[in-house]
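Fill in residues.
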């Protein structure tokens, strides 16, 4: 990974290590900025009988994710690297597509959001793993986020869960399929 080295980084890390950890964090910054925007998009586009529950459930998640974004950006700066927070850079560097659902029922959105959280959490866990040895402070930051992200994921999944504990989105492939499966199960 060819990166421009920072002029300084946190004590006990080499500049190379600082650059590597910052690069991992930059991806998490993009991912969570995207998540915060997506959660607001759902907050505005959810319709139907569960409107108010889902509309109101999402705002505290947005607030929490924005705090995570700020903490990640400031950790990148602490490591001696400039965090990139502009939307153009986010879109240019991201490896996933825009959230694909517009105005739709609550359960369809939650089915899709289940998929979104699976992606974000899997990548966050990988980033935590990749920084465990090099930078335990960054690792701790990411683990702290995971406590909240996984709790929010459960809030979403609890809407999709049967009394037997099965998810209506199980085995659905992709966001749209997941949304459709969740919505079908609800109307069945
Ligand atoms: Fe609002």
């Amino acid at each position: 990974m060819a990166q421009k080295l920072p002029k300084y980084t946190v004590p006990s890390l080499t500049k190379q290590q600082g650059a590597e950890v910052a690069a991992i964090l930059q991806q998490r910054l993009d991912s969570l900025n995207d998540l915060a925007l997506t959660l607001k998009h759902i907050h505005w586009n959810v319709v139907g009988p569960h409107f108010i529950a889902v509309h109101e459930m999402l705002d505290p998640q947005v607030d929490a994710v924005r705090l995570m974004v700020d903490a990640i950006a400031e950790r990148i700066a602490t490591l001696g690297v400039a965090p990139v927070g502009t939307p153009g850079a986010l879109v240019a560097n991201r490896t996933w597509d825009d959230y694909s659902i517009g105005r739709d029922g609550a359960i369809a959105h939650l089915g899709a959001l289940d998929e979104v959280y699976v992606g974000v959490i899997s990548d966050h866990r990988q980033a935590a793993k990749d920084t465990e040895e090099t930078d335990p402070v960054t690792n701790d930051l990411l683990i702290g986020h995971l406590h909240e992200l996984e709790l929010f994921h459960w809030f979403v999944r609890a809407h999709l869960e049967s009394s037997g504990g099965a998810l209506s989105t199980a085995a659905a492939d992709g966001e749209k399929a997941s949304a459709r499966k969740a919505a079908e199960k609800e109307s069945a």
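Residues 43 surround fe (ii) ion (CB under 6 Å).
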